[in-house]
Every structure is written in C-alpha cells, then in structure tokens.
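ok so i was messing around last nite and threw this chain in just to see what happens. nothing serious, just curious
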Amino acid sequence: MAQEAVSALYGAVKRIDRQKTAARPKRFFSEWDRLFGAVYGQKLEKAQATAAQTALLYNLPAGADLKPLLFSIHTYYAFLMKLIAVELLALQPDSTMRGFAAEVAYLDDNELRSRLTYLESGHEFSRRGIDNFLEADFFGWYLDLWGPEIARNVREIARCLGEFEAATTVLEPAWTHDLLRNLYEIVVPQKLRHDLGEYYTPDWLARHVIDRAGYTGELQHRFLDPACGSGTFLVHAIHLALDRARRQPAFDSAVTARSIIDSVVGFDLNPMAVLAARTNYLISIADLIPAIRPLSLPVYLCDSVVPLERAPDPGKPLFPEGKLVFSTHVRNYEFPLSMKDKARIDRFTGLVDESLRAASEPAVFASRVRTDMRLPDAEAWELAEVYRQIKALHDANEDGIWARYIKNAFAPVYVGAFDYVVGNPPWIRWKFLSDEYRQRTLPLWHQYRIFSLRGQEARLGAGEKDFSMLFTYACADRYLKDGGTLAFLITETVFKARGGGEGFRSFEIPATMTPLSVLWMEDMVSLNPFLTASNKTCAFALRRGESTSYPVPVTRWRTKKGVGRIPPSWSAEQVLSKTERDSLQAVPVEPHRAQSSWQIASGADLRRFEKMKGANAYPARRGADTSPYGVFRLRLKEVVRSTGIVGQCESGMLGHS
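result:
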C-alpha cells in the first residue's frame, strides 16, 4: 500500500511544473523546501545517495530526486496521521459520528475528493472542537493534482484503516504513540533518516531529562519543548501532569485539561514533525477532550530562534525598525508591533479567512480591521497590505495556508515565559546550516557572543560552532522565566571544545547581563543512547538568574560489562539496571579563565591535577581539516621504482559519520 501511494504522489510532485492546476502545490513545495533547508542544513549530498536506495523500496527509478521523494513520503505519512486523528475523535464517548475512514472508503472519485477537501481544510476538526490541528499544513496539495491513481491509493488507505478501527473501541495513547513512530520508521528507512540527522529521542531518555530538570507535572508550572519533533517530551510532560492531577482528592477533568493546554507547549520548524506532535498531543489528552471542547492545540509551526522582531544588533538589522516581519520564500510580511498579542493575531487571521471567502477588497478589509480591532488608521492599512498580498496568492490559487501559517509563526512572540524549557535541540555544525539560515541567524550568533574568537585563532578552526549553542542561548533568553530551568540534550563538545565552546561557556545573556547557572551535566558519550549515531551525547541543565559556580556536578554513564549497546526501546528501569554512573566534578581547565574548557574528574583527581598545571610553550594548531571524517583504503596499482612515486591507485571509502 505504501509503495503504490508514495509512487503515485511522487509522480504528481514531478508533474508540478507541467500542470496548470499546480500553482498551489508548487508554492507549498517551495515553502516546504525552504523549511527543509533550515531543518536539515547542507547534509543533502550524503542523503541524496541514500535516496536512490529509498526510491527502490517505492518502485521508483534509482535516480529519484531526494526532495520530491521526501515530500511525497511526508505527504503519505501526514495523511495517515490525519485519518488516525479524525478516527480518534469519532471514538469519543459523546460522538455520534461514524468512523471517517469507513465513511470515505467506498465513495467514488469525485465524492472522495470533496470529502477530503473538507478534511484538509481543517473544518472536520474545527466542527468537532479542535483548532490548530491542520493549520499551516503543507500536505493537502495532492487534491490539486487529483486523478484516478491518487484516488485509488487514498481509498485503499482509508479502507485498511477502517477495517482496523472496527476491531477496537479505543486508541490507547501509549500504544498509538508507538504506532505513529513505528509507521514513520517504516516509511522513511533508517539509513535515510540518519543521513538527514533524524534520530528519535528514546522515551526513557526524554523522561530522564524531564525528571532531572525537576518538572513533576504541577499544573501551575509551564513547560516548553522548543524543538519538539514528534512530541516525545511533550507526551511525557502531559502524562506527568495527568498522573499528578488524578492523585489529587478532587480531580476535575476540565480544569486539568485546560491547565495542560495552557501550560504544555511545543514549537518546531519541520511541518511533518509538528503534525506528528499535534497528533500525539491529541492522543495524550483523548479522554479529556469532551470536557474542554473547543480547544486549540498548543503545538506551533514556527522558528524558536529567529525572532519576528528587528535584529537585536542595530548595526546588522534583519528587519525594519519597530516591525514584526514574517519571512517566507514568497515575500516578507510586515506587521505593526501591536500584533504581539495572541488575541489580536488570532482575530486578524480569522478576518483574513472571512474576507477571502467574501472576496473583500483591501480597502474594505482595512475598514473592518480598524473597527473590529480598534486600531489606528496607519496600523489598519499595514494589515490591509498583508491582506492584499495574501489575497493575491489566493486569487492565483496559491493560497490555503498563509494566514494560518502566519498565526503559527507569531507564537514565540506572545507565548510568554516558562518555568521549564526542556528538549533535544538540533545538533548541526555552523558550516552545515543552509546558506540562508546562516545569514538569518548571524546577528544572533554575535548578539549572544558565541562567535567569541578573533583573527588567526578563528581562522585556524578553533571557532567551529554547533547550532545547539545558539539554540540554548536563544531559548534561555526568550522563553525561560527568572529562576526557571532549561534542560537539553546536547553535544558534549560545547563543554570540552577549547575554542569552539568558549562563547557558550560564558553562561550569561549579554544584552541584559543575565547570569545562567549550570546545575549539572550528565556525560553519556560512552553510553551512546542514540544507538547508531556517532555523536557525543550529554544532558545538562541551567537556571536563569543565577551565576555558575564550580565545581559543577557531573554524572558519567557507562554500560555494565558485557551489556553492549542500549536499545532505544528499553524502559528507564532496564537502562538503570544495565548501566553504572560515576559521580564526578567539572571545573575550567584554566582556573582564572572561566570560559576555558571543562576538566572532568573526581574531586581527588582534580586536586592532583591542579599541581600539574602550568604554562605551555607549544602553540596548538588545528592541522588538516578532515571533515567529513572520510576514511579510505588504497589499493596500489603501480609504483614507479625510480622515484618511488605512486603512479595509480584505486580508492574506496570505508565509512564516514
């Protein structure tokens, strides 16, 4: 089923440039492609080779293009999630609706397209009291390229799911969460996922980081995962909040559900990951939905790092002074600062949708927005200009998501501060970020003084940075309350790298001189919890508003003798029983330079090391740049005896990471 469906979708994507009805799919694909570049960076050459293997799985030519192939796979997976979500709503105790999949499985092509158009519009969820499930969704494009082949495959998917749903009366949250993960691992092969840098955070590890951060599910505490992926950390936070609430003497399902919706929030820049996180969020609160409908799912497609405001460095402005600017591949949309308010941006986007349906002209929209939102003339006309730009796309049949996309992008502006910011941010080295995203984030690297090196030291390579450094500072600055805790999985190099991590190890937000106190670090390099990934995993936590004091407590994990690698499927209890943990301490290797590399050892060893420290007359050099760490073997073909120079050789790459 997946083979035929993805093959049909891929064929449709490849026809986008040749079909007159493909204006909207072309816009969606272009914007998805822009986000794809920001999410995956410049790892595409490596992944393109793997795409050939993936194409064969879907009965496509080995030369299939990576991006259209992934867009097709994401569309297929997104469709499965939409069907599962709407089936979940049909299974609610107060629902009088029959299962959606069973309803559409035997419709003719035209009726099926009409029914799916309603589903993809989001109205199927809105009328059942769920908002922000399909807002800013890129994957309904297939309806514009509808034909017998796509219809046949969609009908087969619905039929199979309808037969499966008839055998059960409930979608159990933990089981369905695993189902979604397993489905994704089936439709996107492991090699391709790993070449793109996609690794699921094991459940036990997500729960461990949340526990170590100190989050216990208290409903008054706000929790944000700013790189939520498919929602693993969000699901664990929701379960903690539900378990805690149900242990109280008087459990109120409506109060509990509303508190969770208001306090457990996720951001991500990957459209498919956002849809997966929303689906998992919906499943996690499934039995509470009747008590709080209507509700708006607090998982947003947005950039946690790049602000909608002007650049903080006046010398390098990203945006005009005093404006909020949302950038897409089409254009920049400029808003007045008064739109930094959830109610206002919600009302504005609602008016855009209503006005588009009524075919209102921009002048009429300006008059209405001025009256409804009580805005001065100048701001009303600024918003009317945004409406005019969206209407132009709408009139050219290139719209469908832009107003809701904008609504999601504004979430970081109005969402407020959190007691806990927890997650697994992207680990991407600076040089592997896309060119566009490097340019967009460059002022922020300087603002947070992460680019701390100058001159020859930087040119010699000591300044290699990882995007997780910037991500940490941006989140601590923008989303963390004073006294709040941030806990991330991150690469250990931010603590150990001599030059590359110095700016990160200042542990201070420069603009406000707000200190950040590192509370603990857990060294998981030997444990390697991501199984097939060759990385240096660690977890750490910091608290905003306090200064870091040394030594910092460090826990070093290692597996017990004979255990081998830890499977991601293990429970926390299994992992703890098969590992050992050493209690160590970390101090700056140069006692009088707090930003120097960390030295980690037992307290007794650190005291001995102090006696051995002194000046080093040898100036270190980086030497050869071996990135991307290629390893080759050579087979000699000919040696010219008179000179000893190798004349010919054959090479083959053994492996890389």
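not much to say yet. Residues 311-319, 455-462, 644-657 have pLDDT under 50 and may be disordered.
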